[in-house]
Amino acid sequence: MSLQISRTRALLNAALVLAVLALAGFGVVQVARRHWQWQPTFRARAEFATIAGLEVGNRVRIQGIDAGVVEAIVPPAKAGDTVRLVLRLDDRLRLLVRADATARIATQGVVGAKVVEIVPGAADAPALSEGGLIRSEPPRELADLLEQASESLHKVDVVAQRAAEGLGEINAIAAGIRRGEGTLGKLVRDDEAYRTLISLSGRTERTLDDLDENLAALKRTWPLSRYFNQRGFEDRDRVLFQPGAERESRTLKTDDLFEPGRAVLTAGGQGRLDEAAAWFKELHRTKTTEIVIAVFTDDAAGNADLAQMLTQEQAEAVRTYLIKRHSIDSAGFWSTRKVAAVGFGTETPRTLAAAALRDQPARRVEIILFTPQT
Q1: Is pTM, for the whole model, over 0.85?
Q2: How far is CA 212 from CA 156, 205, 217, 337, 364, in A?
Q3: Model confidence over 205-216: pLDDT tens digits?
Q4: Which positions ≥6 away from 22 have C-beta within 8 Å?
Q5: 91 contacts 40 by C-beta, under 8 angstroms
Q6: pLDDT above 60 (res 17)
Q7: Residues 32-37: what's their mean pLDDT?
């Protein structure tokens, strides 16, 4: 008995096969274009003393345009030499890259992926030749920005302290004048001098109020606002205080995760984070669950500022690994959950009870889950 199908059904089957082949071909074309394999391209070189974590395949931009990829990274032949980058660029943008163009390594946002940005140069300069060398600028690291911000904040703190001391002295003088005490008490009879002094005191108080507002605004300005938003927290004193949420945590020793005194994960440390990610996924928490990665250390280094910077970078390293390797920020289709990375240095948060810290190691990483109950 022979099995026959109608002509219409055969045509439909053929159309389906052609559609699948067309879709597959479209996908291959898109992947190839993403890696700049088919379209006409030209190559350029750039040399840097450090490439700040840039990798092969990272994007190259010209005036913000997606212009190519980093095709190869050539390590230095000897100590002190530069790192050479080979850039594959869109041939349609060749006229924009002049001989006096400059290249620098930048970050998307503040903590995103690394990209190479090319500033074209003067329009009347000769075009860069095939494989030509582009002048480079040293990359600016996040640690440098934070150090500069820390110095600025310290200066503001000194000014605020001096203003507060001056305010105390002015208030003491004003109080004595109102009571008529001492030689300055004679000024009580001079209404104009009295009003002037009280006005000065009021202006000083308003200045201190403005200073507090400016300090709060500083955290919301670029690049610090981008820095705090990328890490999912704004106030270290409150990030561990969520009275309306159920709290679950897992503690790991810092020495088991990182190279000594650095924010670089070891192979064993990555394995321990893999176990922590499995623990989190087994709990099956809701989309509203927030994750806080808190890192603490002791005062062995003897420098609170350096301890703060170290623990912050260690917290970010753990956050980046868990998101890239295990997608712990994913809360379902088109949805993400908040994952905060907070370094406390040698500080003990006021919201942590002393009994809860009794058996905890001083150098530790805590992965804490907060699930709202209200």
Answers
A1: no
A2: 10, 11, 9, 32, 33
A3: 666 666 655 655
A4: none
A5: yes
A6: yes
A7: 52
- pLDDT, tens only, 329-370: 887 777 788 899 999 888 887 766 555 667 789 899 999 999
- Residue corresponding to tokens 């940005």: 117
Could you give the C-alpha distances from 156 to 153, 208, 347, in angstroms and in order? Answer: 5, 11, 21
From CA 352, how far away is CA 39, in angstroms rounded? 58
Q: How many CB atoms lie within 10 A of CB 340?
A: 21
- Closest to 46 in 3D by CA, of 89, 86, 19, 4: 86
Under 8 Å CB-to-CB from 254, ≥6 apart: which residues?
295, 297, 314, 361, 363, 364, 365
C-alpha span between 244 and 313 (Å, rounded): 29
The type of residue at 132 is G
Residue 226 has pLDDT above 50, yes or no: no
Measure the CA–CA gap between 285 and 276, rounded to whole angstroms.
14
Please report, in angstroms and rounded to a whole number, the separation of the first and last CA atoms in the chain. 69
Residue with tokens 């840097």: 48
